[in-house]
Amino acid sequence: MKFTENREEVEKLGVDMLGYIFYEPSRRFVGEHPEAALFEASKPKVAVFVDENAFEILALAKNFNFEFVQLHGKENPKTCALLRKQGLTVIKAFSVDDSFRFDTTKAYEKEVDYFLFDTKTPLHGGSGKKFNWEILNRYKGYKPFFLSGGIGPDDAADIKKIDHPKLTGVDLNSGFEDEPGLKNIEKLKKFIEALK
């Protein structure tokens, strides 16, 4: 989320969590001085970081009352464990392509709450591209995961066909935007109704 009014509209749709990007190169970056109202949500909030200092993450989470952090860079298990010990729910993202080895996630299993599997690209997320979802069958870990990467308004039926016991949710982003950070309410509404 990037705009307060848009966040309020999205929240009414029955989403489970709201994401906020604190990675400056991203087109969805919340900005250097975001207005406080942007974060006054009743839904759980996820702060998204890429290779940020753990103490900076903790400070931002405290200042804006975040319950979740999503780590989208090369953060190691120790960093995840440190954040978790401070009471944050940690989502560790992994960039997936056809050659991705899911045993890479094992070192993180005891240190995070969720994984997020996104499409591998030169950038950190927001590419609008899908990876081959059949690869998810290779994941045998016990941590629940979110599916991310290029999900669009027409994908609800295909997502419902994914039969994986650890799939816990989907991350909706660029496929539902009118511009970076501005979600299209009608597209989201139709997708959520189709998915449920």
Automatic annotation (TrEMBL):
Pfam families: PRAI. Belongs to the TrpF family. Pathway: Amino-acid biosynthesis; L-tryptophan biosynthesis; L-tryptophan from chorismate: step 3/5. The keyword Isomerase applies. Keywords: Amino-acid biosynthesis, Aromatic amino acid biosynthesis, Isomerase, Tryptophan biosynthesis. The gene is trpF. It comes from the Bacteria. Gene3D superfamilies: Aldolase class I. It catalyses: N-(5-phospho-beta-D-ribosyl)anthranilate = 1-(2-carboxyphenylamino)-1-deoxy-D-ribulose 5-phosphate. One of its GO terms (biological process) is L-tryptophan biosynthetic process. One of its GO terms (molecular function) is phosphoribosylanthranilate isomerase activity. Residues 11-193 form the N-(5'phosphoribosyl) anthranilate isomerase (PRAI) domain. It comes from Maribellus luteus. The keyword Isomerase applies. It is an enzyme of class 5 (isomerase). Its EC number is 5.3.1.24. This is N-(5'-phosphoribosyl)anthranilate isomerase.
